[in-house]
Structure formats: structure tokens, C-alpha cells
Structure prediction request, 175 residues.
Amino acid sequence: MNKSVLSIALVLSLTACGDKPYEFEGKYLVTEGEECAPDTKSKDKDMVFFEIIAQGKGDSKTYTAKIPMGAAWGLPTSSNGNSSPTEKEELNFSFNKEGKSGLFTGKPSIDMTVTVIPHEMKENHIWLTKWDATVAQNGMVKQLSPLEEMKKQAERPGEKIKFSDKGLCLSKKYR
Prediction:
């Protein structure tokens, strides 16, 4: 009996020591390159680029997201519904902005998906690995990736943001 109690205690203690789920919630700033170096050049270096808000606690914790700068770009700013981490610790968010009809004053409808994952080497950092959008207006549909467009912009000489092959590295803001 003592051996079985000891075995159960050992299993429970090892289970408790397992990897904790990543704490995604926070406000995130843009960083530079593979090293996720702080942005020291941009005038917007302290501007929140992405925000993740936790809902609930423990195993039932889900997340919503905001892209505060989205409004300035004509994009949706708040995710639809809640997202739970996948087995790979990915969070997948969907965003939607309804369009308005009009010959000259119409606005497109926009559907977006954004995927973030924890940085495997840097605490309090995430990779924005996917950002796809579908824009529909007046019967025309266009697929694009704001992340890929940002990467193209970053390749221009003199640009401030540097990208990694993994995506855009974001760090939690602590102020």
C-alpha cells in the first residue's frame, strides 16, 4: 500500500511540474528581426500594436484580441468571439468589419485571420506568424496579407522594422 501511495504522489507531483500554458494576455509592441530587439528608431516605438485579453481562468481560459492601429488602416480592430490555444500553443483570431454599399461612398467588408505563437526562446514575446485578409467591395473580392505587405515595406532601404522568417516578433509592454 505504501508503494502505491508513493507512486500516486510521484505521478501527481510530476504532473504539477509540467509546462504551464503560455500566458498570452498583454499589450504587445513591435520589435526588430530574429533577435526581437527593441525598436529604438521609430517614433511609434511605444505604440501598442497588438493586445490579447484573457477571458476566464485556468483550463477554461480563452482570449480575444485587438489591433489598436487597425482603425487608422481601415481594418477591424477587435476579434470576433474567443480563441483557445491549440495543441501547438497557437492562438487563431478572426476579425470582421461589415462593408457599406454605395457607388462613391461605399466601404469594403473585411474578414481577417491572425495567428500568434509563443516565442520558444524569449519570455514575454510572441510571433505574429499569419495575418490574412479578404476584402470584398462591389462584387470584387481580393485576398491579401497585411503581414506580407509589411515585410515588403521593411525590405525597402532605410526602413526601420526588420522581420524574421517566422513573422513579426512582438514583446509585452510593461508600463
